Input
Amino acid sequence: EASEYGDWDVLPHSRTSRWFHNLTTMDITSRSLEWITAFFNIVTSPYLQKVNVQAADTSESKKNRPLIPPQILHEFCDTLSAHPSRDSIQIIHLFIDAEYPSNPEELEVYRDMHLEPLLKLSSLRSLFVETWCGVYPTDPFLARASRAWPHLVELVLGWITVFKTHPDCPGADEDAQIEYLWRYPPTATLAGLIPLARGCKDLNLLCVYVDAVKLPEDNLTSPVGSVSRRKRGKRVQMQSPLSRLHFELSPVKDPIS
Output
């Protein structure tokens, strides 16, 4: 925080000076994502490879932590997309902590439009965005991600699990809590994962919030690659390194019904 490390106002809020020019790893925690975004604007290093950000209150008293507005997240991602290290950043881990609202009307969610600037990071291999309010990608965004991040190994766009740890989430049982969190239904489907599986040949971990209840047949056709190929007249299945697939709090239809 600025109060801990000196007066923020005395620092130049631009890259006119060569601040941290050889930095390769950024590990930063602040209650304000706006402050973190401003700090990135003074970092001139073109060599950043790993960015670990915690927009969280690490004090003992964690009260009055409002959810970070989606526009602030978009501005942070936009700053990264214009950074001198845009072509070298491989890892982004973003943790956004906040007090979960007791009133569902106050819940704001993060959409893929707020992460869209990150598609300019062509070297990205690992992206974790974890929040209390969830991240809602769409099938078209996942298809664009499969083309923008060909070296992707890990993609986690998930919730910070609130069960049994967050008293503000109403309901005495897990089913009631899930119903509360499903106030905003997922905007991606199982079919939206296919381009990632086909286009990201190194993908090992995938965690997204999807509608796993229904799967329209006409969405199974994708222009991104093929799940199998012909070799000497025989059909050969393509192998995928994907070993961890998590649906988080996604609604999943009973496969027996």
Notes: Helices lie at 2-5, 33-40, 70-81, 112-115, 139-148, 174-181, 194-199. The first strand starts at residue 25 and ends at 30.
